Amino acid sequence: MDLLDRLRLDVPVAQAGMGGGLAGPELAAAVAAAGALGTLGLTAPDRLTAAVERVREAAPDRAVAVNLLMPFVRRGHVDACLRSRVDVAVMAFRIDRAMIARLREGGVFVFVMVGTEQQARTAIAWGADGLIAQGGEAGGHLTGDTDALRFLPVALRVAEDRPVLLAGGIASAEDTRAALAAGAHGVVAGTRFLLTRESRAHRAYQQRILAADRTFRTTLFGLGWPAPHRVVANAATRRWCGDDGGARLAPRLVNVLSGPMARLPDRAAASVNNLQTPMLPLFSPIAPTLDMPESSVERTALYAGETVLRIESVISAAEAVAELSPGGH
Ligand SMILES: Cc1cc2nc3c(=O)[nH]c(=O)nc-3n(C[C@H](O)[C@H](O)[C@H](O)COP(=O)(O)O)c2cc1C
């Protein structure tokens, strides 16, 4: 069956599920109502259930997707997805064979986001229904370092006849057309949807990244999850990153030793976040959301992809879907 039919989409465009409260039901519902795939970022299981209901109320005939940011996923998140009968789950930054099987048995279409051939092979061998091929130009955490259009053929070959969506570098209809022409079945955009009115990114965060003239890879904001990510500079990165963007030794050591913190309950993780200052080498992956003080833009991760250098303003999610649609301008 065609992917658009199966997921009840008008256009082959998906909004990335951005965790830590960035992509909530307002954004996912607006994207779904505009005919694209709206995705909820990971949040506590009870909030996830409520968020799915809100998207369903606002966009009743559309699919709902949930992002499973694996370092932080607990059994309760999967239970919530199954109970709410979500249409799609996107597993990222770790692959769990039993979880893929459980979701698929529950009727959930499982995408796995990958950035290397080995990750793609494992995902397919373990039963993924489709792949999201993420390029190194993407915003947020990174699964590999090859550009999206160069990695796409590898993912397509491994996926055989399963759908492959391209993520990284998508900010215009032209980008979408190039991805489709290269064989992708659709595209995923994160940064473009972060810069919408329905996103819960702090307004100062949005303005900061719109004004940036450079993004870079670092591992600075790795407390509990020491994986590379693409950000824009702030006081914390100026204090703790080298010229190449890499984190200095002190935060690197803290991050490597803090893996078990990913298992902290959400409330405990939030209090760590409140302690953050640009002066201490202790930086969690949480980005600035609307409920945080404006000063948090200097001490938290300002995730953004390379497309931020071409995006000019904050628009509505419906406008973003129209701009990314292959028939758009
Ligand atoms: C602010 C931000 C937060 C993100 N959070 C997540 C996340 O929680 N889970 C995930 O799988 N990917 C996350 N991503 C990565 C996206 O899934 C996607 O790969 C990326 O945004 C695509 O590149 P683009 O930003 O150039 O559109 C995030 C990206 C951004 C920009």
From TrEMBL:
Family annotation (Gene3D superfamilies): Aldolase class I
| Cited InterPro entries | Aldolase_TIM, NMO
Q: Which UniProt keywords apply?
A: Flavoprotein, FMN, Oxidoreductase
GO MF term (any one): nitronate monooxygenase activity
Q: What is this protein called?
A: Oxidoreductase
Q: Name one Pfam family in it.
A: NMO
